[in-house]
Amino acid sequence: MQKIGVLGAGAWGTALAVASVRAGRDTILWAREEEVVSSITNEHVNKLFLPAVTLDPKLKATSDLAALADRDAILVVSPAQHLRAMVRSLKAHVPDGVPLVICSKGIEVATGKLLSQAIEEEAPNNPVAVLSGPTFAIEVARGLPCALTLATRDETVGMALVEAFGHTTFRPYYNSDIVGAQIGGAVKNVLAIATGMAAGLGVGENARAAVITRGLAEIIRFGKLYGAKTETLMGLSGLGDLILTCSSTQSRNMSLGKAIGEGRTMDEIMAERNSVAEGAHTVEIVHKIALEKGLEMPITSAVYYILKEGRDAKTVMDELMARPFTSEHH
Questions:
Q1: Is 91 a catalytic site residue?
Q2: Do residues 279 and 266 touch, judged by C-beta distance below 8 A?
Q3: 75 and 5 in contact (C-beta within 8 Å)?
Q4: Which of 12, 218, 310, 314 minimizes the number of CB atoms within 10 Å of its CB?
């Protein structure tokens, strides 16, 4: 796999394109915005989404999906709620057999389906993989070391992708559990919002550790619905990602929660951002599925009540702490 396409030129898509070039691959980055293509091509920087990093001149940018037609693999980095539509458009140009690697995190709100299910419906003859783990885009783009999960059911495809992207500072680990790799990445965004709210409310580091640990129990509980392996959820794409995202306001989700905990409104926060925190979408469908299946996910529910029903963050957090005592493994 020498020719790589990256679909989506936000901060994470750009960082992955940089990592692909660093691994020696011929890489094309697709952007919807012509100004992003121009900025990358002429100034070797993504001024809109990743302005702090100078890009390798070898990285090519385009706004034409047909330019991805000859790629050996394509990283799909569209926002989760737009991923299905993007793959549908992409399939007009990309032949069967080309692996499509999901690099977004979320669950389709409209259908309740995993992103892999959406791709399998839109591109049934293309192998689906998932690349997920504890990574901040800016650190990956700067070449700081990281480790990720690369999951796909076909080990031959999986190992070929690992070899294509693997580098001394970018270490993918193969995993066959494509479901678990997605569940961890999706639900941890919701929990990062909760952790941010705790930080904004000033309830201390003990509370943050509690939210992370009890949140992991919610991830595992939710994952079992889909047949996810606990080992995957305890690995890089689950626990690893959860720890990172809940530990720094570099995370869009944690910073969103912190701002809400400090008393700001969603409208105020989004007016200052050019990208959405995926957890704000994911919480809606995770909460809905949990209710339908009778799953106890109190932290997720708390985030839902605050974001979607407009309830007061401190009141909801107080109610969360006042729940009846129970067994840790319940």
A1: no
A2: no
A3: yes
A4: 310
Residue 171, SS3 per DSSP: strand
Q: For residue 105, what are the CA distances in angstroms to 30, 80, 179, 278, 280?
A: 19, 6, 12, 7, 12
Residue 231 CB coordination number (10 Å) = 11
pLDDT at 274: 67
Taking a C-beta distance cutoff of 8 angstroms, is the pair 254, 190 a contact? no
Q: Does the pTM exceed 0.90?
A: yes
Class of domain 179-321: mainly alpha
Q: Of 3.40.50.2000, 3.30.70.890, 3.30.980.40, 3.40.50.720, which CATH number belongs to 3-176?
A: 3.40.50.720
The rounded mean pLDDT for the chain is: 95
Would you say residue 275 has pLDDT above 90? no
Query: Residue 308's CB: how many other CB atoms inside 10 A?
Result: 13
One of 188, 224, 293, 308 is an active-site residue; which one?
Answer: 188
